[in-house]
Write a structure and sequence with these properties.
12 helices, eight-stranded parallel barrel, 12 strands
Amino acid sequence: MLAVAAVAFVLVAHVLADSTGGDATSSAPAGTGADDEQAGAAARRALAAGVRPVPATPPGKLRFGLGPGLDSAQNSPLAQDLDFYSTWFNGHSDLSFLRQWKADLIPQVYRSGHGIHLIVWLDGTGATSSFQTPHGPACGREYPLSSSFLDDARELASIFTGPADGPALYVTLFTEFQTYPCQPNAWAASPETTNYYLTLQDQYLAALRIFHDGAPNARVSLGWGGWQDRWDDPATGAGRSMFPHFADVMRASDFESFQAMGDDPNAPDVVAMTGQLGQYGPVMLAHFKSGSPSTWTADMYTLLSGDAPRQLSQNGLFAFSFMDQDNINASPAALAQARGAIQSHGVHAPR
């Protein structure tokens, strides 16, 4: 059904060869686990030389975004105070409406001085099964590791491209990627899980290169689920022990990103994940929301009042994107709270 993994590895091999001056395809990995992880580490570190800096953000300030679509964000009462608008890609069928945006809405957003944030979430797309990869047998969601996804990424780069000296295109790839394997949130839950994550890393780096080649204004990140810092299990590489396995990939990224969407308090996760990911590069809170209005209000106060924005900025946070307008439009008080935080602590797009 889907040609998984092999094309992804070949593309990454060419990326690594370009970075190191060698022919990475001549030593394609045949093993699994630790051997493969060590084999790719040096070449991935070499990719860090191609990192694109995010736009300079004054200390203590944040770049605010809003989703879930460019059209809805553009019509929000907060639109003019935002730095960028967020939108989603959830699978191949989304290209049908995104192609319509290519000629009008996307250039219009860039001309307004706003950046665009493309969030790629694929845990609900395609089959979940066991299949072969260049690293060995894997189990998980097939489409993110497929040649079909890389073809779609190439078209996405073409659709969202903008001038290199214009507003940024931020790309959060594979958001909540820890859930894509059959056994989530742990690097070594099984050999099939490790092989899945190794292949996902290859695929991510191939997609990063596609966006860099196809969109001169693109900055690319790997999207973490914001719960990963809540526990630690070194034996299976779970919880906090998962971060080191992705260190080289994160250092090769233009920025780091995570989500926070719990009904319980999200502020502790935001602080913890910013601290974790800030070791590797600038950090974006890619989609923030809560199903509990009282939790959202408390999170907003904790994260965006007093000295908190300066502390988050100091620890690496440069951008904060609201997933949608549900929380903001829940009451006049919520809208006023969001507007006050954005106007007080935000970097605003030119008017």
